[in-house]
Design goal:
Order of helices and strands: HEEEHEHEHEEEHEH
Number of helices: 6
Radius of gyration: 15 Å
Shape: globular
Structural class: alpha/beta
Oligomer: single chain
Strand order of the largest sheet: 4-3-5-8-9
Helix content: 25-40%
Length: 169
Amino acid sequence: MKIIFNVNEIYKQQPKKMKEIAGVNSDTFTILIVDDIALNLLLLDKMLKPFDFQIVKAANGREALETIQSRIGTPDSIDLAIVDLMMPDIDGFKVIEHVRNGCDNAEFRIPAQSKSDLPILILSGMNFGEDIERGLALGANQFITKPIVMTQLYSIIVEELTKKVEATK
């Protein structure tokens, strides 16, 4: 799904810089955004600027899994992933499945990650009941529909990162 936006409107709607989530500096969180449409990646990157997150982008599910795998156990591990569902090759459903169940094959070695270890938000234009149910059943934390409502996106990110921080205390 294409998202048409006006960059000036995005900047007008953005809240002031958000420097902390659950007492942790927001610039220490690494967020992976996954979408096969470059414009959507650009939009999400702009929308997340007020948080000063470390943003990592992947253009498809394969790149997402490679990124997650390469950062596990490092200071740059992924703290939260925002994943589109409909992508070529490896779709968002498969990304969620591999992350939640773990994947150990010739291509990937990813240990299973819980919902608090690596929160996954689905961001998709596929907002049919069965898609939402399937994504959540596979282990996504939450489902956000396109077009993006910025206040909803912000509140869900803060909620999930707060849960992640609280789970480590």
